[in-house]
Amino acid sequence: MDISFILVRPAVPENIGAAARAIKTMGFSKLILVDTSAHLCPKAQRLAHSSQDILEQASYFNEFADAILGFDLIIGTSAKKRSVRQDYIAIDMLPQFIASKAPSNTKIAIVFGCEESGLTNEQLDACHVLSHVPLATVNPSLNLSQAVMLYAYQLASLKNMPASPAPSSDDDTVAFGMLKEKVKKLLYVIGYAEQPAFMGRIMERIAFLSPKDAGMVHSVCNKILDKLKA
């Protein structure tokens, strides 16, 4: 599994440095930063003890939409359930969920929002699935670097998972990002764009399909779209 950690607008340099240290400690190396320069602060370097290379090699994007391009499965994290979504995956169940999506979904992004307010609703909607850490209390909550540490620890087991065979040319599995775009296109064509709540619910359920079922839905969408064009 190729797992990247995306920090969106982190404001506290120490959190970025500590997150880099957590990522490296658990055997990961890919950090993506969105709309921040705090990682350049000496405080970030100091907290990234023996992990400055993670900061130096981090990818940077001005826009969140650009940062998530190319990922097969995008997992947004949230401290609490803030929307109508019902299907938040608890952190301890996440490795099993991700493993079940192989081999068609191997590029994984774990997304964290800013310290003050987390991910926006728009950013959460762009994720394929949401995850949270069950806590004993609402306050205090975990800070950014603590959350990154917990997710890195939980997902470390995926690094030792036997590599899945690459999909063959006749394999009917499909990456969830591709399927989401195909279903969205079909829903717009048949008029569901005017029902955003219903459309959003369909979008979030896509990631819970098995790879084989996702492939079948993708094939059906293609045939329907072809018929509509005829």
Features:
230 residues; 7 strands; alpha/beta; Alpha/beta knot; 41% helix; 7-stranded parallel beta sheet
Class by alpha and beta content: alpha/beta
CATH architecture annotation of the largest domain: 3-Layer(aba) Sandwich
How would a textbook summarize the main sheet? 7 strands, parallel
From the alpha-carbon coordinates, what is the Rg to the nearest angstrom? Answer: 18 Å
Q: Taking all residues together, what is the mean pLDDT?
A: 86
Describe the protein's architecture and organization.
The chain has about 230 residues and is an alpha/beta fold. About 40% of the residues lie in helices and about 15% in strands. The chain has helices at about 15-25, 40-45, 50-55, 65, 95-100, 120-125, 145-155, 175-190, 195-205, 210-230, and strands at about 1-10, 30-35, 60, 75, 90, 105-110, 130. A seven-stranded parallel beta sheet has the order 3-2-1-6-4-7-5. α1 links the parallel β1 and β2 (about 30-35). α8 runs parallel beside α10 (about 210-230).
Quick gist of this model?
This protein has 230 residues and is of the alpha/beta class.
Write the layout of secondary structure elements.
Layout: E1 2-8, H1 13-25, E2 30-34, H2 42-47, H3 52-56, E3 59-61, H4 64-67, E4 73-77, E5 88-90, H5 94-99, E6 107-112, H6 121-126, E7 129-132, H7 144-155, H8 176-189, H9 196-205, H10 211-229
Parallel strand pairs: 1-2, 1-6, 2-3, 4-6, 4-7, 5-7
